[in-house]
Input
Amino acid sequence: MDALTAIAVTSIITSATCMVFGSIVPAYGESKIAIQAIQGMTQQPDEANDISRTLFISMAMVESTAIYCFVVSMIILFANPFWNSML
Output
């Protein structure tokens, strides 16, 4: 296996690993956030507006982690900085 093939295989494996953890962990976090928000709304219906606002902000923060992992994965696949050092 030459160096370019090794870089390609390593890039694909790294990208796949980044996407696996970048999608599973935020999905688990979002489910925990939603469960806690629903429990809070059922216990305190008067605070449902504040809880839902905080819920949406928290979901956006957690989802940004998945988006960052996607961006890093695409950079590793299509704009790999190690290609230039081997070419």
Remarks:
- The helical segments are 3-43, 48-78, 81-86.
- The radius of gyration is 19 Å.
- Residues 3-80 form a domain with the F1FO ATP Synthase fold (CATH 1.20.20.10).
- The longest helix spans residues 3-43.
